[in-house]
């Protein structure tokens, strides 16, 4: 059953069109180089339209994996494909595992606090998820390789890609947790002080320190770097011709790179040049 005729799941013509348009997403992110307004996270602003951070992240990021799963279970039937090969499900699994963590586990269960999000970046992230998931799901649910023979190629590169994907995800989770620990530690300290002096708890909302562990010793956005490694591995699994995985990686880089540079300016302004030291924004020793 189609939710939106010829779009969910997409017809081949519509999928081709969407993938073509999606390749031009870096043009949209050019605005991030011109405008410093980015009302979420560290640079969130006061607005009565703001969405609470945890709910914002859960809703804007969940749409991607749900769309992908829906297409995985409907498009093959429409195309008369009885069973998709293991590698198609492996790629779907990579995508779903990442977004179960990013959209549900991280904001709703692990993060001590998250800054509010203005509806404009929320809508941008929601649209990113819709475009990206249809692009990837179309490829792995029938318009890309759909038989074991289609995958007959360099299985070593695909297996290495899976390992790179897993290492990237673990690195992303580890560095996310280094940031969480800053707020957990602040919370413990406040509780201790409150116990001893009877002071009321302030809460850990918007408590920031310079993270020190892991790759944070070299770059301020180590979690972003690991996410790039993760999706580079995903592209390796799909192979050089997997244009949706390539577009995903390039589109992430095009939006996260200016955000990391803006973040570095924010750290320098808040903590001073000396405290930031030789740390780069995202690539150790380079940028
Ligand atoms: N932003 C993007 O464009 C984008 C795109 C794709 C994937 N992602 C992935 O999504 C995840 C979150 O991205 P993000 O842009 O929200 O990252 P972020 O700005 O670094 O924030 C991540 C979390 O850590 C907290 N935090 C950040 N810096 C901190 C510090 N110095 N001290 C204490 N707590 C700190 C934030 O709290 P506050 O919310 O209160 O600031 C937030 O809860 C990352 O793993 C990233 O790879 C992001």
Automatic annotation (TrEMBL):
This is 3-oxo-5-alpha-steroid 4-dehydrogenase. Belongs to the steroid 5-alpha reductase family. InterPro entries: 3-oxo-5-alpha-steroid_4-DH, 3-oxo-5_a-steroid_4-DH_C, SRD5A/TECR. It is found in: Membrane. It holds the Pfam family Steroid_dh. Residues 122-286 form the 3-oxo-5-alpha-steroid 4-dehydrogenase C-terminal domain. Keywords: Membrane, Transmembrane, Transmembrane helix. It comes from Amniculicola lignicola CBS 123094. It is a multi-pass membrane protein. GO terms for cellular component: membrane. The chain crosses the membrane at residues 15-35, 55-75, 87-110, 122-144, 156-174. The keyword Nucleotide-binding does not apply. One of its GO terms (biological process) is steroid metabolic process. GO terms for molecular function: 3-oxo-5-alpha-steroid 4-dehydrogenase activity. It comes from the Eukaryota.
